[in-house]
Amino acid sequence: MNNATHGDADDHRGSLPILKMLELAKVRKLTWLKEGSSTIQQQALRDLNQAFQNWWGRPDHFGRPTWPKKDINEGFVIRDLSIRRLNRKWDQVFIPKCGWVKFRVTREWRDIETASSARVTKDRAGRWFVSFTRSGPQIERKPTGEIVGLDMGVTHTVAASKGKFLDMKLLTNRERQPKRRLQRKLARQTKGSNHRNATKLAIAKLSAKETDRRKDWIEWTTT
Q1: How crowded is residue 133: how many other Cβ atoms within 10 Å of its Cβ?
Q2: pLDDT category, 185, cuts 50, 70, 90?
Q3: How far is Cα 46 from Cα 44, in angstroms, rounded to an integer?
Q4: Which of 17, 73, 168, 190 has a beta carbon 3.0–4.6 Å from 68's, enabling a disulfide?
Q5: What's the whole-model pTM score?
Q6: First to last CA, the chain
Q7: 184-189 long-range contacts, CB within 8 A, separation 24+
Q8: Strands (E), the chain
Q9: Of 75, 56, 64, 95, nearest to 2 (Cα)?
Q10: What number of other Cβ atoms are within 10 A of residue 121's Cβ?
């Protein structure tokens, strides 16, 4: 989650245990909090508290925690994990208040039970993701002693000192046309309308395709 806070949080350092404040909020004012998972809410407050500790301790390095933004910073952390395997491509994770949720396995990894936590996020294109935290596997490498220089260019994405060129496959002009058409449509629509929100979502889905292609190329190339 993004590190959201109340405006007077700076003046209440250590006044009440942060988890106790959550219980008081449920009883006194924000009764709708009872509909959510206590464990997820508690973890969100721990993350918020840690963000403030980082900001107070090193303001030159960490910025002030900010409010989350819709469709940008949506997500939460699950600590008590329950995961079960369905088949080679699909697994299930237990999300409090939601039950078992199926997800597509996009990374081949073993010992899935060793994951310590999971983060569920939603991107601008309306897609939900779950990522797991666990210790990385040991990778054995054999140094060759060779040295290569890399230059990030415009004509070629990467140019190596040995004369090799690496080019990222971006969207073609034909693939960009629908996005340009939607952007012109968006400029004519009324802000806050349902039609404009639908157009923004369509643009986000096209942008996600370009972002996914870029990330995939970077992962394969650097690995």
Answers
A1: 12
A2: very high
A3: 5
A4: 73
A5: 0.68
A6: 29
A7: none
A8: 74-78, 83-85, 90-95, 99-104, 117-122, 128-133, 150-152, 158-160, 165-166
A9: 75
A10: 15
